[in-house]
Structure to design on (268 residues):
């Protein structure tokens, strides 16, 4: 890779947003990423956090997958118009990409509702994105005291608090979800996180079982079932509470996506 110079930065800034957005993957159809809908998912690269159970670690770095082009995604969305009920932007952390708003606008122009997966790492950017989306899946990681250690980023708890409040205040449809692993988060810490969501006014809460798919940290125990007591304590807090055994926002391999016939990959 060549060195980064002011001229190369300027040249990149002059490119159309379709060439600047850091595409990391595409799923042409899923019923998991936007519960209750058949949706396509566009994955953007880049995340400032290093959660030990991250199932998309290859999307943590801010780099573009050279095989995936925006025009190919548009073609796949148009081909699936009769079945798709929405498009989700996931990651990584999609709000890390300055081209997200333009991409949402392009998808909206095609006539699709837009959903967003976010961990709340960038509340200033999220505030500008919320008026553009129809649904948010908010990945709550921990209770306030445990956040910085879990994400590996100082100040993440304060950012998440700000983002969570923005989501509730926006009135946009949402779900708050928490993935639990006994080696990462105690039961009491998980309940504190759920209380935080309830206090803000979250209408829907999901406890997600830990899954090993895509996880790079092999030190975590593979088997981490949700304790019945934890589930019962959280269910008491929300009228709409679900236990989910599937992973939201799991990016697939590009060659697999291409073989499914949606032609999301531009190999030319």
């Amino acid at each position: 890779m060549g060195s980064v110079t002011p001229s190369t930065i300027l040249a990149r800034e002059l490119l159309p947003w379709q060439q600047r957005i850091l595409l990391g993957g595409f799923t042409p159809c899923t019923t998991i990423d936007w519960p209750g809908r058949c949706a396509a998912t566009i994955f953007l690269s880049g995340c400032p956090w290093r959660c030990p159970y991250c199932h998309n670690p290859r999307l943590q770095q801010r780099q573009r997958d050279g095989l995936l082009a925006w025009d190919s995604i548009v073609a796949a969305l148009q081909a699936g118009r009769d079945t798709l009920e929405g498009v989700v932007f996931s990651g990584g952390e999609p709000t890390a990409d300055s081209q997200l708003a333009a991409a949402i606008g392009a998808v909206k122009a095609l006539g699709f509702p837009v959903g967003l997966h976010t961990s709340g790492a960038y509340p200033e950017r999220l505030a500008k994105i919320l008026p553009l989306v129809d649904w948010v899946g908010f990945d709550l990681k921990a209770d306030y005291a445990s956040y910085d250690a879990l994400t590996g980023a100082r100040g993440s708890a304060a950012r998440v608090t700000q983002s969570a409040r923005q989501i509730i205040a926006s009135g946009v449809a949402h779900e708050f979800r928490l993935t639990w692993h006994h080696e990462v988060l105690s039961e009491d810490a998980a309940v504190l996180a759920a209380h935080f969501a309830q206090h803000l006014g979250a209408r829907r809460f999901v406890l997600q079982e830990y899954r090993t798919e895509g996880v790079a940290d092999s030190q975590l125990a593979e088997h981490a079932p949700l304790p019945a007591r934890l589930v019962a304590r959280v269910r008491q807090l929300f009228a709409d509470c679900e236990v989910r055994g599937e992973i939201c926002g799991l990016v697939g391999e590009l060659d697999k996506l291409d073989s499914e016939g949606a032609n999301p990959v531009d190999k030319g």
Remarks:
- The beta strands are 23-30, 39-44, 86-90, 114-118, 135-140, 173-180, 204-209, 240-244.
- The chain has ten helices and eight strands.
